[in-house]
């Protein structure tokens, strides 16, 4: 009875964490460039009952082992980097990525990576994100649009072109995208950004559309890849799984009560 209680407690903890992941997905259903999380479970250690499995011998067939599981544990919490849908905004500094790659931004201390493409100009004409992190160009430096530029445009290959004060076309920068061998190994750093880890691999930066990188679509933003129908289903699964494990505890408790009543 005690074993079943502890197995149920482990299951309750897991489903609580699954609900945390699901709730976070739902909270970010409208967050630009957000990638949903996924919780997976694994069984814990199993106790061997009896002598274990035996091979066939002496004219007798083999015997399978007898094991009793001791509950479950959290196997992984994955970040699912599938493509989100592009929403048309008509704003030139809104950049959606269709395909692989991340924008590289710098917060003054380190480089971070994001799929959220809502960028702005600061007072110096530097392209920054909503938190003031500077978008890094292909040369590793910032991209600046002069104040006297009559207009500007961003091509699918990331080239930033302006019409200068004299009315001539001029290239003022090149937006690059960074890819990773294992993007699921990136660590979430807040603000819709990611940080390199030992398991993500070093990022490789290049022009959009090169070596499998996606294209930039100016005037669009990539939406979250969260599907509400899936998340509500996962929420129900987590709720019912939690309830089922609590029922296991109450059932074990009722049996213990019956054992205690034998004394009477």
Query: In sequence order, what are the helices and strands, one letter per element?
Result: HEEEEEEEEEEEEEEEEEEEEH
Please give the largest β-sheet: 5 strands, antiparallel
* Major beta sheet, strand line-up: 11-7-8-17-16
Per the principal axes of the C-alpha atoms, what is the gross shape? elongated
Average pLDDT, rounded to a whole number, is 92
Proportion of helical residues: 10-25%
* Terminal residue distance: 20 Å
Structural class: alpha+beta
Beta percentage is 25-35%
Number of strands: 20
Unreliable spans: none
Gyration radius (Cα, Å) is 27 Å
Q: What is the total domain count? A: 2
Count of helical stretches: 2
Domain Flagellar hook protein FlgE/F/G-like D1: 97-161
Subcellular location: Bacterial flagellum basal body
Organism: Sinobaca qinghaiensis
Domain Flagellar basal-body/hook protein C-terminal: 218-262
């Amino acid at each position: 009875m005690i074993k079943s209680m502890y197995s149920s407690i482990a299951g309750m903890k897991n489903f609580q964490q699954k609900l945390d992941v699901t709730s976070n997905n739902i909270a970010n259903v409208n967050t630009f460039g957000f990638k949903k999380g996924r919780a997976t479970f694994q069984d814990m250690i199993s106790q061997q009952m009896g002598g274990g499995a035996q091979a066939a011998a002496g004219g007798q067939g083999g015997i399978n082992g007898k094991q009793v599981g001791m509950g479950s544990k959290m196997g992984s919490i994955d970040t699912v980097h599938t493509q989100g849908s592009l929403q048309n905004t008509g704003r030139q500094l809104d950049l959606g990525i269709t395909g692989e790659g991340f924008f590289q931004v710098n917060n003054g201390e380190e480089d971070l990576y994001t799929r959220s493409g809502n960028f702005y100009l600061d007072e110096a004409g530097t392209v920054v994100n909503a938190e003031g992190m500077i978008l890094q160009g292909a040369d590793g430096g910032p991209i600046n649009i002069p104040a006297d530029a009559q207009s500007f445009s961003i091509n699918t290959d990331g080239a930033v072109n302006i019409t200068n004060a004299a009315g001539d076309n001029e290239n003022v920068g090149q937006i690059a995208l960074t890819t990773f061998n294992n993007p699921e190994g990136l660590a979430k750093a807040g603000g819709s950004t990611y940080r390199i880890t030992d398991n993500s691999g070093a990022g490789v930066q290049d022009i959009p559309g090169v070596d499998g990188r996606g294209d930039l679509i100016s005037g669009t933003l990539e939406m979250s890849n969260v599907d509400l129908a899936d998340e509500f289903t996962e929420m129900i699964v987590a709720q019912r799984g939690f309830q089922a494990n609590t029922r296991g505890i109450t059932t074990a408790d009722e049996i213990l009560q019956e054992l205690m009543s034998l004394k009477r």
